[in-house]
Amino acid sequence: MSGGLPEDQRLLWVTFLPDGRAAEVSPGSTLLAAARLASVPIASVCGGEGICGRCRVLVRSGRVETSPTPLLSPEEWRAGYVLACQARVKEEDVVVEVPPESRTSEIWGTETLPEIESSGLFRLSPLVRKIFLALPRPTLEDNAGDQERLFREIRKKADVSELLAELQVLREWPALLRSARWQVTATLAQKDQVVEVLQLEPQDRSREALGVAVDVGTSTVVAHLLHLGTGKTLDTEAKYNSQRVHGAEVTRRILAAERLGVEKLQSLVVADINDLISHMVERQGISLSDVLGVVCAGNTAMTHFLLGLPPGALRRYPYVAAAVAPPAVRAAEVGIRINPQGLLWVVPGIGGWVGGDITAGLLASAVHRSKDLVLFVDIGTNGEVVLGGQDWLVACSTSAGPAFEGAGVTSGVRAGPGAIHRVEFTPQGPVFHVLGDGLAQGLCGSGLIDAIAGLFRIGYLDRSGRLSPQAENVLEHNGDLAFLLAPKGRAARDILITQRDIANVLRAKAAIYAGITVLLKETGVALKDVRWLYIAGAFGSHLDPRNAITLGLIPDFPAERVRFWGNTSLAGAKLCLLSQQAWEEARRLAARVTYYDLGSCPYYYEEFLGALFLPHTDLSRFPSVVAGEKL
């Protein structure tokens, strides 16, 4: 420590095990802030608010200032565990151990498709890129203006026709070109049908171009930092969407925007994106000015909130968006902090309640190129369904609610370290598997589906989803029946599945299944004619198709023809950022998908009611469940 400084100015060392990395911080700094300075990856999707419980660390030596939290058991508290986002260094150096389950290597929602050069779909040609130029000096024989000289040389090295530059940028060029001895790096950005020269820099800085792809989800915001020259992912970060204080579903947030002003909702999600970018940039030891562009994918409402567009018309007939395919804008216009000249692109939506996240998903999974019929289902707070292939595509959206993402569930958590993501029922009782192999913190969506399907299979649930009071480990919890999956000790807390949780899941699965059924009927397609069932969504890679069918979440479909794609919204956003070809394909793709409004279907509600049972009121739709279970 700096012994000559006053007490409140002394810096303290925080050392992280097993990495052995350390950071020097001011008194009052959180352990999470110290970890970021030391480039130690600690999961924290709630953005440091102390509500996700992901950043559990063990204080090995030294004292920190913090308070007890229900996210840590009394045994953990006595052992020295704290939440890194809430624990602050105060008077002495600290040594902290970061357990495997608290690391971001398995953070929810950061999984994606292979890097672009190995995907085989598109060539690497980023929406924004840098090129080095050695311009010939002006002479009496070659006395073109500085702008014309620059544009001429750009066209020699890049396949562009229409070029433009803003006046304020143009004013800087004469002095810069001469001080740099005509050796400069130009930053080029694809902006609609023209290419804009965003900035000039002296000498060769062509290898310093970075960009960010963002999945702006209703529940969670996920970002990847990309090197635009190579297409490699440098860093990842995720956090809860701060708009959740205004409601778990987008309709409640639209009402809040009408009451409080859309600027309030915009500021929250923009702050989330800025947090993610700043954390990644800080860890990588680079400058925000090196981040030249951001591509965001989100549902229609989230796109409106991000851009500050009035969303009210989305919830009123005929449910029209202010913009489905908004133009590229300066990121600074919406408050995103990157290079001041950097651009923001929003993946174009399809219409109504089917947004750019689904366009991105279709692009990433190549549904639109399939010769066979594909049923694409994105399971999240909204449940979107797309049916078709290379000849035609039809899409609809259902309001599933946040249950599959762990929200609004008694013991629900996101699909990250500490989440129970698999549950099996054996003669000896339930066996569960935890992401990160640490102490279980709660159930994520796939674990919840496994558990409910398993309870039904062993007879603890009837077809209406009611728990049997006489069943083993069924108890009363806050006036409600609940199944105790794991008692405290085997987990960080009692992991319960309540009757209310089951009802929430049944409503969510009924909405999605009814949407699938309506889309098949309205297009005249029989389920047997669908070749592939694609499931997208962050928890999809952990989903057991047999249990999803038992629940009645998806149709009775051969398991070998079910594919899980993970976070396709993020994957598609990355493709768009890294390839102009992919971006143009996304624009064309969005325009050719037909949007079907389920609200106009006279029998949707009837289908929804039928799907509220396990697996359905019409058992003939689920022959494999009938054959395998005693109903």
Could you explain the architecture of this structure?
This protein is of the alpha/beta class and 631 residues long. The chain has five domains: 7-104, Beta-grasp domain (Ubiquitin-like (UB roll), Roll); 128-206, Ubiquitin-like (UB roll); 208-356, Nucleotidyltransferase, domain 5 (2-Layer Sandwich), CATH 3.30.420; 365-402 and 515-624, Nucleotidyltransferase, domain 5 (2-Layer Sandwich), CATH 3.30.420.40; 403-505, no CATH class. It has 18 helices and 29 strands. A six-stranded mixed β-sheet has the order 14-13-12-15-17-16, sandwiched between helices. α8 crosses α9, α12 (445-457) packs across α14 and α15 (568-578) crosses α16 (580-592). The longest helix has 25 residues, at 499-523. The protein is globular and about 95 Å long. The model is unreliable at 1-8 and 105-119 (pLDDT under 50).
Which helices and strands occur, and which strands form pairs?
Layout: E1 12-17, E2 21-25, H1 31-37, E3 56-61, E4 64-65, H2 74-79, E5 81-83, E6 88-89, E7 94-97, H3 116-119, E8 128-134, H4 146-157, E9 163-164, H5 167-170, H6 173-179, E10 183-191, E11 194-202, E12 210-216, E13 220-227, E14 233-240, H7 250-260, H8 262-284, E15 291-298, H9 300-307, E16 329-330, H10 331-334, E17 343-346, H11 356-365, E18 374-379, E19 382-388, E20 393-399, E21 419-426, E22 429-434, E23 442-443, H12 445-457, E24 474-477, E25 480-486, E26 495-498, H13 499-523, E27 532-536, H14 545-551, E28 562-566, H15 568-578, H16 580-592, E29 594-595, H17 604-610, H18 623-628
Parallel strand pairs: 1-7, 9-11, 12-15, 15-17, 18-27, 20-29, 21-23, 27-28
Antiparallel strand pairs: 1-2, 3-5, 3-7, 4-6, 8-10, 10-11, 12-13, 13-14, 16-17, 18-19, 19-20, 21-22, 24-25, 25-26
Helix pairs in contact: 7-8, 8-9, 11-15, 11-16, 12-14, 13-17, 15-16
